[in-house]
Amino acid sequence: MLTKVTMKTITLVTLWVLSSVTMMSACQAHNMQTKAALQKVPPHEPVIIDNQDALVDAEFSLKINNVVVPYNVFSLFVLPEEVTELEIIYPQPDKRYELYENGAKVQKSEDLTWHWRAADEPGEQQLTIKSQDGDVSMTLNVFVMIPAEEVQGGRLKYYHIGPYPDESEVTDKNMYVEPNGFIEVTKANQEKRLSPHFKLKEFTSKQRSGYPKFVYLRAPLLLKLEMLRREMNMNDIPVQNMVIMSGYRTPQYNRAIGNVKFSRHVYGDAADIFVDNDGNYRMDDLNNDGAVNIGDADVMASVIAELNKRSEYKGLIGGLGIYGPKPHRGPFIHIDTRGLKARWRKP
What we know:
By secondary structure, the chain is α+β, with helices and mostly antiparallel strands. It has a single domain, classed as Muramoyl-pentapeptide Carboxypeptidase, domain 2. Helices cover 16% and strands 29% of the residues. The chain has helices spanning 4-13, 36-39, 52-56, 219-234, 251-256, 294-307, and strands at 57-64, 67-71, 73-78, 83-89, 97-101, 104-106, 113-117, 123-131, 136-144, 146-147, 155-156, 159-160, 181-185, 193-195, 198-199, 213-215, 242-246, 270-275, 319-323, 332-336, 342-346. The strands form six sheets. Strands 3-9-8-5-6 form a five-stranded mixed beta sheet, with no helix packed on it.
């Protein structure tokens, strides 16, 4: 018998109409045979959220251009002065909603629809949607990115990004789309939530540097991570902490660790992940066999396999890599949203 949460989830995921995603060659293994400095990974800091049941779902879904978001906290990555269409779909009956930018009401374009223009300079803004009773129904943390054209000599404000592949190396420009801008990560904003369970700092490249750092992300990756996390919990695989072992990688860092040039991590829609509820920065024993090995990564992969059977999931289809443990790390899986299935397994 389906619970109310299950029914709501099924209803929401059918609304996830995603914009076209790029396609890449399969992401290769994360080569950890590099300098010791590159091998060190900071301890995972759990994301602590009170009253999670009340937090995760909004009372409506919000269509952001062509991406539909069912959560009451999400993020928006835009360029200066970029116009974004925001449309509430399936609102609560007999409820009115208003959009506020940093506390000021934004005029509707039509009922339940706004065409919102970002600030003319990079930085951060916040959008909130409130019902007529004044309750905040959804918060969007907006990151106005620094345009990619400002990267000079492979650097942005002294942060080493490195070169993306030259156009002559790209066989299909629709498949290999360079970032159009970068999110500035500072000590002040790194704790901001991008979605209910993931923070900005979890996706930054692991290269050594001071602040500011810069990151590029695509919204479908956040949706896929949240969907996987929820599906696991619904299938009695407890997930309090899902660790992003590797999110965005700059081309410079990607090259330094010996990974392939066209890694999905470089293009902002890939993550290497594992479940770590006990906080030891290793995969948990998900199959309850008394050991932590590739079988636990298989548990996570099996949930992805089931999601792939659903027609409503097709916009999130991508790579799935299963990795066994090594002396310096535990098992994990790789996921991305490249737009076609790619599968590999490395014991």
